[in-house]
Amino acid sequence: MSPLPATIPALVRTRVRAAVRRPARLTPEETAGRALTLRLVSLLLQYPDSELTSARPELTAVVEALPATPGAEHLARFTGWFAAQEPEALERHYVEMFDLRRKSSLYLTYYLHGDTRRRGLALLTLNQQYRAAGWSTDGGELPDHLPVVLEFAALVGPGGGEAPLRRHRRGLELIHHALTGSGSPYRHVLAALLSLLPPPTEADRAAVARLVAEGPPNEEVGLDPYGTYGEGEFAPPATFVPPMPAPPTRVPLTPTSRPEGSR
């Protein structure tokens, strides 16, 4: 997009840019298909426990029945790999990619705020947004865990529901970059998600490059999202400690949530 004239007030320029990047109005069928894709991405980014691995044939069938889109192609590539792996190998790979590497953690506010006090406020704001929409995470995970954010987006819809995804676009780009650099098939799941969002701006690309080089912001005293670390202690400086994962709440793929032809 070419630069807007400097004579236009800053507020107007901001609104024009937002209008340009805003997705076109979707039909009910497109909205339902988008919600299904978001739910699939949410499921596939959860820890591959026995319940999820036992559902691999069903997940593969649902992905194969999606309309032909770049996102569906990426999901098909992932489920092809996912279905062929031994459960133990999937568990090891998931832990290595998402629990042991700071640049592919699934906790989105970390990329925007790092280990700073602002992260706690961001988590509180996100929780309040969920409650205002009449949705509760039941305390099973932090509100910025990507599968949780995706489920909210699927339930509420492309406007307010997807706002947290757009807000954390740069963090999503960094996760995708890290997974791609590691050669992880999970890069296809992130690519499917990114295909639903507006294209990144030059500012987005520059910010991601800085995150790759420098990492997220940090304070001299590392902080847990709610102010403490471990048994009430502060984390050492520059330490990234992702919260302990809790069993996620899944929304099953019921017959009414599947696209025509997936049965």
Question: What does this molecule look like?
Answer:
It holds the Pfam family Nitrate_red_del. Keywords: Nitrate assimilation. It comes from Streptomyces indiaensis. This is Nitrate reductase molybdenum cofactor assembly chaperone. About 55% of the residues lie in helices and about 0% in strands. The relative contact order is 0.16. With about 260 residues, it is mainly alpha-helical. The protein has one domain (about 25-230). Helix 2 runs antiparallel to helix 9, helix 2 packs antiparallel against helix 12 and helix 11 (about 170-180) packs across helix 13.
Q: Topology, please?
A:
Elements: H1 10-21, H2 28-44, H3 50-54, H4 56-64, H5 70-84, H6 87-99, H7 109-113, H8 117-132, H9 146-156, H10 163-167, H11 169-181, H12 186-194, H13 202-214
Helix pairs in contact: 2-9, 2-12, 4-5, 5-12, 11-12, 11-13
